[in-house]
Amino acid sequence: MPASRSSRRADMAAQPTCFHEADPRLALWRRAGVEGLGTFALVLAATGSGIAAARVFAAQPGMILPVTAVAIAAALVGLIVALGSVSGGHYNPLITLLQWLGRERSGVCTIAYVAAQLVGGTLGGAAAAALWGGPNGSTGGLGWHGVGGELVASAGLMLVVFGCMRSGRTDTGPFAVGAWLVSDIIATPTAAYANPAVVFGALVTNGPLHLATGSAVPYLLGEALGALVAFGLIHTFFRAGSAA
After folding, report:
1. What is the pTM of this model?
2. Domains and CATH numbers, the chain
3. How far is CA 179 from CA 51, 116, 196, 205, 231, in A?
């Protein structure tokens, strides 16, 4: 008989793994609050570093993307290491939703996490715009031409996240995700937003990461499709609930 959702979550809690909180009995408002705070800090660092790089390298625009990629990855690694034991360190609704689809997280927790992440991301983008000011300096994304880029970027990121999660190597996850993200940002035409919370923040920020409203839906669609592709691959190649 298949394991129940509650028993599978208990198994995941008993086996230390990346991107799961150390103590799932901790009050939900605390765990969701950390997800909101971490997402706020991540999007603030991502959008703020983009604005800073655009100003510093105004005469060398080719430097903006790699500098921003390193800044975003470094911020994410630091935030996962610092706060991940409380909430799991997702800072990305795609991770939370795939855990829910995999019966590793309850529906109530998923709703709380995703809401906190989206609010945190929006506030992070707005904070960067308020701190730096000035015009957005961006074309606002690729519109529907960005669906494929976000699909590939999100699928790759989720493969790394859930591959680390299944590997049982709890200390490697933040660094593997950060390393992949540098490549993901540089290699994809959309610069790998790969996170609905970042899209929400990009709508209200300035600088290279700013998105026009016409790009938001295509990017979110690509991210959702990419996450589902990764979900299928992970469950094909990894035995559920076990280390590699």
Report:
1. 0.90
2. 5-237 (1.20.1080.10)
3. 22, 26, 20, 25, 21
